[in-house]
Amino acid sequence: MADTGKPDDGDAEGRRDFLGSASKAAMAAGLIGGYGGFAAIALRFLYPSGGDDRFWQFVSLADEIKVGESILYRGPSGETINIARQHRNGDADDFVALSSTCPHLGCQVRWEGQNNRFFCPCHNGVFDPSGVAIDGPPAEAGQSLSRYPLKVESGLLHIAVPPRLFARGGEQGEIIDIDGDICGPGHDPCLAAHLRAGSTERKG
C-alpha cells in the first residue's frame, strides 16, 4: 500500500494526549506560581521580618552589679523585676531579669546568690536560676517567673520595653531599694520600698 504521508490515527492520538498533558502541567505550574507568590507576599505582610520592635531602657552600669548580687527594678508599667548577675562573662548572658511577683499568690520573690536560687518566703516557693519553680506551691502548680530580655552594650545594661509603653508618653523604669526584710504571707507584693528617682546608684 502506498505511503500517503499522513500520520495514522495512533500517532495523532498520542500527540493529542501529549499536548493535553503538557498544557495541564503548564496550567498547574502557573497556578502554583501565582498562588505561591501571593502567599509569600501575604506572609511578609502578616509577619514582617523587620528589625527588633522592642525599645531598650538603661538600667545600670553592668559592672555595678556583682556576681551573686541582684537589684530590684520597677518597669515602666509598674511591674517589679529582679535583675540578678549569675556569671562574669561580660555579656547579657551574665544576667537574668525575672518578675519579682510570685505566680502563686503574689508575694515578693528574692534572689539568693548564696543558694543560687530565687525564693518566695511567704509559702517557701523556690525557683531555679532561670525562674522555673522547683519546690513549694509554685512547683506543684508547674509555674515559672516571667522573664524579660536584657542586653549589654558598651558596659551598659538595658532591659526591653514594649513599644506600646512609649505610645503612652515614654514612661521610664527605675531601680528601687528594699527597706528591711520581705514581709509575708499575703497577696500584696508587700514592697517596703522607696524610689531612687533619677539615680541608679545603689546603697552600700
Could you outline the blueprint of secondary structure elements for this entry?
Blueprint: H1 9-46, E1 55-61, E2 70-74, E3 80-85, E4 95-99, E5 110-112, E6 117-120, E7 125-127, E8 133-135, H2 136-140, E9 147-148, E10 150-153, E11 156-161, H3 163-167, E12 174-178, E13 193-195
Concise synopsis of the structure shown:
With 204 residues, the chain is an alpha+beta fold. 24% of the residues lie in helices and 27% in strands.
Describe this structure in words.
With 204 residues, the protein is α+β, with helices and mostly antiparallel strands. It has 2 domains: 42 residues; 141 residues, Rieske [2Fe-2S] iron-sulphur domain (Rieske Iron-sulfur Protein, 3-layer Sandwich), CATH 2.102.10. Helix content is 24%, strand content 27%. It contains 3 helices and 13 strands; from the N terminus they run H-E-E-E-E-E-E-E-E-H-E-E-E-H-E-E. Strands 9-4-3-2-12-13 form a 6-stranded antiparallel sheet, with no helix packed on it. The longest helix has 38 residues. It is elongated, with a radius of gyration of 31 Å.
Considering the chains and any ligands shown, give keywords for the structure.
single chain; 204 residues; alpha+beta; Rieske Iron-sulfur Protein; 2 domains; six-stranded antiparallel β-sheet; 3 helices; 24% helix; 27% strand; elongated
